[in-house]
Amino acid sequence: MLYLRNMNEDEFPAYVDYFVADYGIEIKASYNKTTEQALEIARNEIKNDLPHGVHTKGNFLLCIELEKKERRSTIGYLWYARNDDEMSAFIDDFYIFPDYRHEGYARKSIAILEKSLADSGIKEIRLRVAYSNEIALALYKKAGFITTGINMAKNIVKEEENQQ
Known about the structure:
The chain is α+β, with helices and mostly antiparallel strands. It has five helices and five strands, in the order E-H-H-E-E-E-H-E-H-H. The chain has one domain: Aminopeptidase. A five-stranded mixed beta sheet has the order 1-2-3-4-5, covered by helices on one side. Helix 1 (about 10-30) packs across helix 2. The N and C termini lie far apart (about 60 Å). About 15% of the residues are buried.
């Protein structure tokens, strides 16, 4: 059986460690940053977005748990922010640990979240996924998400830097 439960305060540091490392890789690949720059951006983003950790208003940090033989194990994380004015939720982060991938747990987690949000009056789930993350794109399409736009970026360099 699969469950989504609120993350405990003592679990938050491990989540931050995972998030900074994982998001840092995406930032480095997507925005042509050095590893150090990417990690600093990731650290600053989570610090700014979750200033009170698991108690940050409007944000929900969940542990995805798998129960087998009456024993529960955390197999991933899901972080979303709720916007009651728009009756929507935005998935900020969704991660299944590598040992539990390709077993349907990601799709089941999305379905559990969707039902919970619908029961609480939420009408729409939004998210952003890296264009290069083909596995996540496929998952979200199977789960019924549609593409609503494409983020684009271009690094610009001053002319004098080009001449060096």
